[in-house]
Amino acid sequence: MSAAPDPQVQDFERRLDDALAARPMMRSGGADALHLAANIIDTADAEHLAPMHGLAHGLQMLAPTLISRTPGVEIAVAAVIADLEFAAHYHSLRDLLYYTYNAPGSTTWTFDKGAVEIRFADASLPRQFFVSWNSWFVDSMAAFTDEEPKRRIEELLRGAPEFELTPRTIEAGQLIEAEVDRKLDLYFNLVPNASVAAGAYTFEDFLTVYRALLMKALYHRYHAAVNGSRGAMRMSLDELSRDLESSVENVSAETARRVVEDISYGAEARRAGLDPVYFSLYHLPDSNEIVMMPHHFALWEGIVSFLRLVALRDPQLFLRSFSQQIGDALVRRLAKSFERAGFPARTNVSLSKYDASLPDIDLLIISEERTLGYAMLACEVKSPLPPVWAKDQLRALEADSIAKAFDQLTRINTFLESDDGVQFLKGQLHREGLPDFDEFAMLLWTVVATSDNAGAFFADRGTVIDFRTLERLLSRCDGDMLYVLKVLKEFPGWADNSFERVMVEVKVGDIAVLYEAVGITALMDFSPNTFRSAGAPEQMVSDMLERGDRPLDVFRSRGDDFGDNSDS
Predict the structure, then answer these.
(1) 181's torsion region: left (phi>0), alpha (psi -120 to 50) or beta?
(2) How far is Cα 367 from Cα 335, in angstroms, rounded to an integer?
(3) DSSP run (H or E) holding 447
(4) What are φ and ψ of residue 55, in 5° steps?
(5) What is each CA distance from 548 to 320, 437, 440, in whole angstroms?
(6) pTM, whole model, 2 decimals?
(7) pLDDT for 325-382, tens place per residue?
C-alpha cells in the first residue's frame, strides 16, 4: 500500500493551483485571449524564442478556463506572455505531482523556509524523457537530411500570394506533400487496417483529414518564414470543412467537420473532462472558428493523441478497433527488423502443449553463433500508446500494462530452465549442433520491447527498450548478436551520459521553487558495425579449427562479454 501523501506536498499543490487561478488570463481572459496567446506562441516558435512546446503547454493549462469565457476581457501582451510562461511551469510541476502521488519514491521534495526543491529520485524517469526525445530527433535528422526540397519550397513561396493557385504555389504544395508523407512515416501508426471504426467515421478518414491539415500547417509555416508574416491561423469551421472536402478524396464535408471537432479543444471537450494536452487545435465557441498554431501542429504527435482520445471517449471502441491490431503489428514489425539484421524470428510461440497456463513468447530470436552455439532472445512485446504526459506514463505500472511483462518473463524463464524447456529450445534449432563441432552452448536473454518505455519505473527489473531505439540498433549491428547484447547491457549508462539534470526556477506565490528537468548534452546513436558483411563468422570458424579450439572454450573466454542475463 502506498504511503500517505506528504501534507507539505499537498499544501504546495493547493498553493500552485491558487497561483495559477490568480493569473490575469485565468481571472478574466477568454476566447480572444486564447487567440492572442496562440499568435504569441507561433511567433515565439518561428523565432526560436522559447523551448519547443513550452509555451504551448502553458496554453493547454489555461485553455479550460479561456474556452469557457466569451469573449473575455482584453489582456495586455506582456501579461499573456507572463501567464503562458507560468502555466508552462505549472504543466511541469503537475507532472511531478502525479509522479509523487502515484509512484512513491520517484521524486524527492525538500522544504526550507519559503523554498521547495524537487528532484527525481528514480533515475529511470529523466532517462526516459531523454530517450523519447533522442528517438524523435535522431529519426527526424535521418529522414530530412536532404535540405534541397526545403530550399526549393522557400524559393517558390518567397513573394508568392499565400491563398492563390499559381504554378509556383502548386509546385511548392507538391514538395510539401512529399514532406508530410515523410513525417507521417515517422509517426506512431501501427494500425494496419485503417478501415476500422473510430467513432462516427473510420481511422482512414481521420488520417486523410489529419494529413490535409498537416499540409496546411507546413504550407503556412513555410510561407510565413519567407514572407515575414507570423502568427496562428484562424479558420471558419464551416469553410475549413468544405475546403477539406474539396482537397481530399472520399471524405465528405460532414466527416471532415467531425474529425476536426474531435481533434480540437473546445466546449464539448471541456465538458467531457478531456485534458487539453491531447490537442493542438482550438475550437472557439463564439465564432465557430478553429485556431491552428502551424509550428506546434507540424510537430504534434497527432496520431498518438487521436488514439488516446478514442480510448478516453470510448474504451470499448478502442479495444475493438485498435488495441489488438496495434499489439500484433508491433510484434510483426520487430520480427521484420530482426530478420533484416540477419536473425531468424518467430512470433507468438506457444508453450501451451507443455502447460496451458504459460504465456506465449511474443518474439523468439535465434542467432547461430558459429564459434559458440546459439544465442536466443525471448522478447515480451508491450504496446501501450506512447505517453503524452505523466498520467499516461504512469499507466506502465498498471497490472495489464508493461508491469505485466516481467511476471510473464519470470514464468517463461522458469519453464525454459526446466527439462521440458531445454527440449523446447533445442527443438527450435535447425539442427542438433553446429557444423564442424560436436558440442555447442545455448544462451538465452530476456528483453521487454515496448512502444515507448525505455525502462521508466523498471530500472531494476531487467532489460527494457523502446522499439525505435531497438530498430536503430538492429539496423547498425550487421548481424552481430554480441554487438546487440553489449549495447542492450550498456544502454542505460550510455543514455545517462547523454544528458544532464538542470534546475529550473519559478516563483509560486511567495514560494521559491527549484525543480529538476533534463538538458540534452549529446545525441545517442549507434555506430555502423562490420561483422557478417566482412565475413567475420567464417573467418572466426576457420581460425578456431586451425587452433583446435572448441565452442565451449570460446564460451568460457568470452562469457563476460554477453552480460549477466543469460543461461547456458
Answers:
(1) alpha
(2) 13
(3) strand 441-450
(4) -70, -35
(5) 59, 11, 15
(6) 0.92
(7) 999 999 999 999 999 999 999 999 999 999 999 999 999 999 988 878 888 999 999 9
